[in-house]
Here is the input.
Amino acid sequence: MPIALDNLRVGRKYLFINQGEVRYLEIMARLSGDNFKVKDLETLEYYTMEELLRWGKGKDYELEEIR
Here is the structure.
């Protein structure tokens, strides 16, 4: 069961799956409400959660903390 966006914590790492894309993310900052600045741990690019969820949550949506 995926965790809710309001339970994300700055500095923690998460596995994010949506619309067939798998990403390993680190939360860098909380921008507002459920929007966060995130760093892709594989490509080292920065995104916002809003950008990653722009087209909605797919049937495969998953968000889990990794250690």
Remarks:
- The chain has a mean pLDDT of 93.
- The longest helix spans residues 49-52.
